[in-house]
Amino acid sequence: MNEYFRSKSYTARLKRMGKAKYSAAGLFIRGARKKTWPRVWREAEMKESYDVVIIGGGIHGLATAYYLAKNHGITNVAVVDKAYLGSGGSGRNTAIVRSNYLTPEGVAFYDRSLDLYNTMSIDLNINVMFSERGHMTLAHTDSALRTMNWRAEVNKLQDIDSSVIGPDEIKKLAPSLDVSSDSRYPILGALYHPPGGTIRHDAVVWGYARAADTLGVDLLQKTEVLDILCEGGEDEHGKGAGGKVTGVRTSRGNISAPIVVNCTAGWASQLSNMAGVRLPITTHPLQAAVTEPVKTFLPTVVVSGSLHVYVSQTDRGELVFGASVDPVATYDMRGTLEFTEELAGHVLELMPGISKMRLLRQWAGLCDMTPDYSPVMGPTQVDGYFVDVGWGTYGFKAGPVAGEQMAISIANNNLPKLIAPFDLKRFTEGELVGEKGAAAVGH
Ligand code: PYC
């Protein structure tokens, strides 16, 4: 367990907040006596109508439900998921958080998410294992270094701790990296972002789910949305611009609701078509892999955009790797040998010393890519139909702020300042928010 959660200050803080803490001894005794664990959330009965139906039981959907209930008192809410909570991108990402983006809009947005991640263990009373271990994006070319300098300047203007460092400092922060000038892709410098790090992604899902459930939100798993019901819209089915949402048709029956929120990843555009709202999204798999556990040797998150790889070491000692999205748009999530070979080759160019480590397994998730690598958020041309989609490879780190801001948007039927730049209209009005340069890897 993280030192912080054993500390007196953590216990005192929980006491002040009237929250209980399971001690390690308590957990052991409970296990030894084979006491059954209480359910973490209810098996809710599906009602015929709700004030808000949220599609997608990942971090975004659950966070939106939680903040609707907690900050706006809107509790007659259902979160529906075709599988189990966290079964999509929320359980398939590489758990990296950071706010060192390229545009001022992106920096402000993702930094609010880091704020929320920072206090999440206390706010949700669950150890999300936030490890603020620092995040380093390597530059191997002059043009990459120029982009790192650009990002550092944009970041500093918003008070984000982010700067460009040279090979000596890089070596101190991550001694296993080969910073010699005769390597195949010499490391010229790096964008270093101390507040970045990793978090246990499942714990974030469970924390939001439990908190939303406690506030009265119904979590409906194995409930697939087959149609979004609308009336008054421009097409022959009453969908599209000018219409309004009336509910959803699910695999377990119809639910009526004046507000439906699409918080999905992977199938966001197909779901949106059901409301007659077309999204500029193509869907690509993103593959990741994990090694056997070894003693801790990599203290920071390391990213190389040019070598298409990012890597961090978990608390258990495994290395978790990811790459860029697969080049072909598809919903297929099978791993490929090309990915493994390319990944292994590039990782060894960065850290030749780990050549004996064995890869344990690989997996893939689906990324909904937009033309400018920024999300699409807020109300749409169909009254009552909201979207929180198009996250590309940035979805996990944005979950808390997306939930918080979507809740404001839904409660007030407006577009709060922090997400106004991500309005769907930007694609017709030419106001793109280009975040490709902040991607962990070149896509
Ligand atoms: O943008 O930091 C990132 C990232 C890591 C994995 C996927 N995207």
Descriptive terms for the model:
443 residues, alpha/beta, FAD/NAD(P)-binding domain, D-Amino Acid Oxidase, Chain A, domain 2, 2 domains, 8-stranded mixed beta sheet, 6-stranded mixed beta sheet, 13 helices, 19 strands, 22% strand, binds pyrrole-2-carboxylate
Describe the protein.
With 443 residues, the chain is α/β, with parallel strands linked by helices. The chain folds into two domains: 52-123 and 201-279 and 373-439, FAD/NAD(P)-binding domain, CATH 3.50.50.60; 135-194 and 283-369, 2-Layer Sandwich (D-Amino Acid Oxidase, Chain A, domain 2), CATH 3.30.9. Helices cover 30% and strands 22% of the residues. The protein has helices at residues 3-6, 8-16, 24-32, 59-72, 104-118, 120-124, 142-157, 167-173, 201-214, 268-273, 337-350, 395-412, 426-429; strands at residues 52-55, 77-80, 96-97, 135-139, 163-165, 189-193, 197-198, 218-220, 225-231, 244-250, 253-256, 259-262, 282-291, 301-304, 309-313, 319-325, 359-369, 376-379, 385-389. The chain has an eight-stranded mixed beta sheet, with helices on both faces. It has a six-stranded mixed beta sheet with strand order 8-2-1-12-19-18. It has a three-stranded antiparallel beta sheet with strand order 9-10-11, with no helix packed on it. Strand 1 (52-55), helix 4 (59-72) and strand 2 form a beta-alpha-beta unit. Helix 4 (59-72) runs parallel beside helix 9 and helix 5 packs across helix 12. The longest helix has 18 residues, at 395-412. The protein is globular. The chain binds pyrrole-2-carboxylate. Pyrrole-2-carboxylate binds next to loops.
